[in-house]
C-alpha cells in the first residue's frame, strides 16, 4: 500500500503500484489533490480513481476506466484507522474514548511483537498472571516499593473469573478476596476484533478518576503483530513526566529502533538480569510490557494449543477462543459480526473496584465502565 495526504488534507490508502506498468507510487508526486506516478504521469485521487493520463492522446476517456484499490481511513487520537473489509460491510470507526480526547489526555504508541496476535490478546485478558509475571520478588516486597503496586494482587493469587458476552465482545470480571466482606474486582474487556483494556492499578476505590490503558493487537501475518498501546486520562491532562514515560521514545515499552522493534527483544533475552530476578522483580526483566512480550513470544510464533492444560483461571481464554471460533463459522456463512458496525459500543472503560461481596460486579462498577458521551466529538 501507499499512504498520502492530498493537498486538501484527505487521506489516501491505495494499492502501491500504478495501474499502467506497475511502478511503485512510493516515488510518486503528491500534487493538486492526487498522487502522480513519476514513470508516465498517471495520477490518482484518494479514492484510487485515475484522474489524469498525460501520456495518452488528448480527449481519451481511458482514465475513467482505471481505478486502484483504495481503503477508507480516518485520523483519530493521532492514529490512522483503516477499514480493509468488504465495502458493503463498512462500519463506523470505533469510538474509543481515548481516541477522541484532547491530545494532553491521551497517548498511543506501537511496537513489533513476534508472535501470533491471538496469543497476545489472550495475555491481555488474563488477570491471573499479574499476580506472578508482574510481581516483585520476596526480597523487594520487604523493602520500600520502587513502583506502586496493588497489594491485593499478591494477597489473593487465584482470582475467580466471571465472563459475560457483550455487544462488543467480552466483559471480564476477575474477583479477589479483599477481606472485611469485600471483593476486589479487576474488570477488563475484549473488544472485537483485537482490542483489550487494562484497568487502573493504583487507587482502585476511585478508579473512575484514574487513567487507564489498553492495546490493539493488529495482525501483520500469522507470525507477527503490531502491538499498539494506548491510554486515556478521562478528566485531566497527563502531567509532563507521566506523558513522557508513556509516549516518549518507545513509551513505557522502552526504546525501539526505526522498524519499531524494541531494544529489549527475544534476541537478547529482553535484557533479563538474574540478580534483579532474585532481589527486585519476579522475572528479572525491566518493564511490564516487556515481561508480557517475553512470555508471549516464548511460546513460539504460534503456540501449540494441543499441548496446553487449561485451568479454572483460564475462563477468559476459553471464552475468547469459543467466541472467535463461533464468529469464524458465522463468517463462512457470510454473517458479519454486529459489533463491527456500531462505533459507540467501543466507548467503554476498564475498571478496578472494591465491592461488598453481595454486590453484582456489573452493577456495582457500571458508573466506572461507561466512557464519556462523545458522539458529538465523534461526529
Radius of gyration: 23 Å
Biggest beta sheet summary: 8 strands, antiparallel
Shape: elongated
Counting DSSP E segments of at least 2 residues, the number of strands comes to 16
Percent of residues in β-strands: 15-25%
From the N-terminal CA to the C-terminal CA, the straight-line distance is 28 Å
* Contiguous helical run count: 11
Structural class, from helix and strand content?
alpha+beta
Name the helicity range. 10-25%
Mean pLDDT: 88
- Which stretches of 5+ consecutive residues score pLDDT under 50? 139-149, 373-379
Q: Which series of helices and strands comes N to C? A: EEEEEEEEHEHHHEEEEEEHHHHEHHH
What attributes characterize this protein structure?
alpha+beta; 4-stranded antiparallel beta sheet; elongated
Can you give me a brief rundown of this structure?
The chain is an alpha+beta fold and 379 residues long.
Description:
The chain is built from eleven helices and 16 strands. With 379 residues, the protein is of the alpha+beta class. The longest helix is centred in the C-terminal third of the chain and has 18 residues, at 315-332. The radius of gyration is 23 Å and the shape is elongated. It starts with a strand and ends with a helix.
Amino acid at each position: 500500500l501507499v499512504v498520502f495526504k492530498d493537498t486538501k488534507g484527505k487521506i489516501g490508502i491505495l494499492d502501491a503500484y500504478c495501474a499502467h506498468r506497475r511502478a511503485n507510487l512510493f516515488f510518486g508526486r503528491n500534487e493538486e489533490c492526487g498522487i502522480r506516478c513519476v514513470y508516465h504521469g498517471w495520477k490518482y485521487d484518494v479514492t484510487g480513481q485515475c484522474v489524469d493520463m498525460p501520456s495518452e492522446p488528448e480527449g481519451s476517456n481511458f482514465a475513467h476506466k482505471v481505478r486502484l484499490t483504495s481503503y477508507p481511513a480516518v485520523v483519530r487520537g493521532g492514529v490512522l484507522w483503516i477499514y480493509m473489509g468488504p465495502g458493503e460491510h463498512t462500519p463506523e470507526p470505533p469510538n474509543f474514548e481515548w481516541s477522541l480526547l484532547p491530545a494532553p489526555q491521551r497517548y498511543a504508541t506501537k511496537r513489533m511483537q513476534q508472535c501470533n496476535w491471538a496469543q497476545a490478546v489472550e495475555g491481555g485478558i488474563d488477570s491471573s498472571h499479574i499476580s506472578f509475571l508482574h510481581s516483585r520478588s520476596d526480597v523487594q516486597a520487604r523493602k520500600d516499593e520502587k513502583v506502586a503496586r496493588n497489594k491485593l494482587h499478591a494477597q489473593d493469587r487465584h482470582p475467580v473469573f466471571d465472563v459475560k458476552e457483550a455487544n462488543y465482545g467480552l466483559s471480564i470480571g476477575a474477583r479477589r478476596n479483599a477481606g472485611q466482606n469485600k471483593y476486589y474486582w479487576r474488570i477488563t474487556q475484549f473488544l472485537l476484533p483485537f482490542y483489550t483494556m487494562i484497568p487502573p492499578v493504583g487507587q482502585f476505590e476511585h478508579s473512575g478518576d484514574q487513567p487507564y490503558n489498553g492495546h490493539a493487537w493488529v495482525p501483520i501475518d500469522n507470525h507477527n503483530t503490531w502491538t499498539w498501546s494506548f491510554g486515556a486520562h478521562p478528566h485531566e491532562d497527563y502531567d509532563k513526566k507521566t506523558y513522557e514515560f508513556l509516549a516518549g521514545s518507545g513509551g513505557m515499552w522502552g526504546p525501539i529502533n526505526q522498524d519499531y522493534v524494541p531494544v529489549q527483544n527475544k534476541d537478547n533475552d529482553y535484557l533479563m538480569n538474574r540478580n534483579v530476578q532474585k532481589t527486585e522483580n519476579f522475572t528479572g526483566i525491566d518493564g511490564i510490557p516487556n515481561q508480557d512480550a517475553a512470555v508471549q513470544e516464548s511460546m513460539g510464533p504460534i503456540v501449540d494449543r494441543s499441548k496446553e492444560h487449561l485451568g479454572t483461571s483460564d475462563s477468559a481464554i476459553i471464552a475468547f477462543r469459543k467466541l472467535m471460533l463461533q464468529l469464524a463459522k458465522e463468517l463462512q456463512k457470510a454473517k458479519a459480526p454486529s459489533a463491527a458496525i456500531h462505533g459507540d459500543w467501543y466507548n467503554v472503560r476498564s475498571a478496578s473496584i472494591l465491592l461488598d461481596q453481595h454486590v453484582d460486579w456489573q452493577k456495582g462498577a457500571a458508573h466506572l465502565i461507561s466512557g464519556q458521551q462523545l458522539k458529538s466529538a465523534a461526529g
